[in-house]
Design goal:
The chain has 404 residues and is mostly helical. Helix content is 68%, strand content 2%.
Length: 404
């Protein structure tokens, strides 16, 4: 029995319902939405290594071995000439632009159209990176993944306000699941011998599945049958939106700081935390760092039903401590093995996921009904801003250590 029907999304306020099937759908769409973004970050080291290998051999072929050692580099850190932060910036800057601008105008587009567009962008990103023969083509593919993830995230966060706050747990769990699924599948398939190109082509199944999931959502947003329109309130004015943004700063700043610290670790330091005596190659160590980080994110983003943390600044400071410790670990190389780094990045993921899901839970709880849809979309800029700043900070750090 179909419990959904179509209504016009232009209205800004509806009664809130608790619908298990919506939680399930948001879980799936959360996984689809973040999958391409996570895979591109997991593949960052390989993407850059591939282009370096291609340039070194002056070969036009795409089927280059991504895992060749960086023999041309005399640095003790076995660095790529370009930091993985380059991939991070390509993966986050389009998202940041979308999140800064879209909340003011995006309500004019139906949710179904937005999400179908996101699925197409994700599929295109996999194809571009798989068949790329130059750095610019790979980066363009990453940009497409960023557009997909950014537009999808602010759309689904806005969509959650039409249901009970419990669905935030479903969305958070889905996005956390995307992290584990993307990082684990990429690391696992390449570990068993598949080339990164083949691995990315296999992963096309996820955005294709998302398109199938949305095959009848192209014109309208879906809500349960007993949702009725509330016409007692009008749309928010521009001045009201600016006032809401001012009130969100107490949430946006801690969230941005958490993500600045963790992505400074992920794309500025992880590549440099290389242990030559390990049984894992450099590329393999990097992939498993990313995977364990995503496991931590999944656990903490799924924890909202068990524990809620209002002190968001505490999570921010703990994440900053993580970044400082690992920065010194890169500089002084006092960590004995990759196994200790595995534990630290798992803990890093726990802090980041907890900050994300609790931030949006308390925004939903403390914002007035009429303002909630816009507030959820606008606050999503916090993590993207922190990630973008982390990518910029990672460049000079990478250059400094690789010059040693």
């Amino acid at each position: 029995m179909n419990i959904f029907y179509f209504i016009d999304p232009s209205e800004s306020a509806y009664p809130v319902l608790s619908v298990p099937s919506c939680d399930y759908r948001l879980r799936l769409l959360g996984l689809c939405n973040n999958f391409a973004y996570v895979v591109m970050l997991s593949a960052a080291h390989d993407i850059l290594k591939r282009q370096e290998s291609g340039n070194a051999t002056n070969s036009a072929t795409v089927a280059v071995d991504f895992q060749v050692g960086n023999s041309s580099n005399s640095s003790r850190y076995d660095c790529n000439p370009v930091s993985t932060a380059a991939v991070l910036l390509a993966d986050i800057l389009p998202t940041l632009v979308i999140k800064l601008c879209a909340p003011f105008v995006i309500h004019k587009l139906p949710y179904g159209f937005r999400v179908l567009f996101c699925a197409i962008m994700a599929a295109t990103s996999f194809l571009l990176v798989s068949f790329s023969s130059a750095v610019w083509m790979s980066i363009l593919g990453v940009i497409f993944a960023s557009i997909s993830s950014g537009l999808g995230e602010l759309s689904f966060l806005s969509l959650t306000v039409f249901f009970s706050r419990d669905v935030l747990g479903g969305w958070g769990s889905g996005t956390g699941g995307a992290g584990v699924a993307g990082a684990f599948l990429y690391a696992g398939l390449t570990q068993v011998g598949l080339s990164p190109q083949t691995t990315l082509l296999i992963m096309l199944v996820v955005p294709v599945y998302c398109c199938l999931l949305l095959n009848n959502y192209t014109d309208h947003v879906i809500f349960p049958l007993n949702v009725t329109e509330d016409r007692t309130t009008g749309p928010l004015t521009f001045t009201e939106k600016l006032h809401i943004i001012k009130g969100l700063l107490k949430f946006v700043f801690p969230l941005g700081l958490v993500y600045f610290a963790e992505y400074f670790i992920n794309q500025g330091l992880m590549e440099l935390l290389y242990f030559p005596n390990s049984s894992l190659s450099h590329a393999e160590q990097y992939r498993w760092y990313q995977m364990l980080y995503q496991v931590g994110v999944l656990v903490s983003r799924s924890s909202l039903c068990c524990v809620k943390i209002r002190k968001l600044w505490a999570l921010s400071l703990l994440q900053v401590v993580n970044a400082v410790v690992l920065l010194f670990a890169v500089g002084y190389q006092f960590l004995p093995s990759a196994w200790l780094v595995f534990v630290i990045v798992l803990y890093e993921g726990l802090l980041g996921g907890a900050a994300y899901v609790n931030t949006f839970y308390f925004i939903s709880k403390e914002t007035e009904d009429r303002q909630r849809e816009f507030a959820m979309a606008a606050a999503s800029v916090g993590d993207s801003l922190g990630i973008a700043l982390a990518g910029l900070a990672a460049f000079p750090v990478h250059r400094y250590f690789c010059s040693l």
